[in-house]
Amino acid sequence: MWNQWLRVDWWVDNFYVIATVVGSVVAVVWVIGQKRRARS
Length: 40
Description:
Largest sheet: none
Order of helices and strands: HH
């Protein structure tokens, strides 16, 4: 079971999904930060 997490091909297959999720979170946080900065 733990071998699945150590497999490189698993990370490669899911790299785009992980990158999309992380990128979306960063983008949302950045937009919120810009809106807060514009208000004050």
